[in-house]
Amino acid sequence: MDYPVLYQGDQAGSVTLTAQGGRTQVEVSCRRDNTGLFRAYLLCERGEYPLGVLEPKGEGMGLRRTVRTGELQALGTIWRGELRLSYAFAHQTQWQSLAAAGEFFQRDAQLARELSGIPGALWRQERNVRLLALPYRTDQPFPITTLFCFAQIQTIQGQVYVVYRFDRDDHPVFP
Fold first, then answer.
1. What's the predicted TM-score (pTM) here?
2. Measured between alpha carbons, how far is 43 from 54 in angstroms, rounded to an integer?
3. What is d(CA 90, CA 92) in angstroms, rounded to the nearest whole number?
4. I need a surface site. Which of 3, 66, 95, 108 has the fewest CB within 10 A?
């Protein structure tokens, strides 16, 4: 039997169940989504059955496993499969623009003043730290020279930036 697999209300693939005596072969096949790791579930009349984490397979992602047929029968009628994002990859976090880099600082007025004239800054939240990316050019002074040892040079959206990490109190954090 084939059933649709949904992710956020849209069909993302299918799940095929093949009876083999007292066991059932389950095969999930979905289109590739590079935003993170996904788990598949069967949604049934009396609950759900976790199938596992999908892995990359060619142009898509999927899994294959064998389960006891009695476990599935105990859940009643199978309605469909479902994908759930179980881990989002960090690189998917979007950088946000700042009109001026000084806007980033909430508690450190001195750094806010020092960076108020720097255009093109980006920021993003990453777990328990905030990242500030300042445009970097070799013909310009290094941004925030007093925090040089906390800096990382990174390419973001094709441009070179100096990236600093700060805690919620605007204290620098080593990378």
1. 0.53
2. 17
3. 5
4. 66
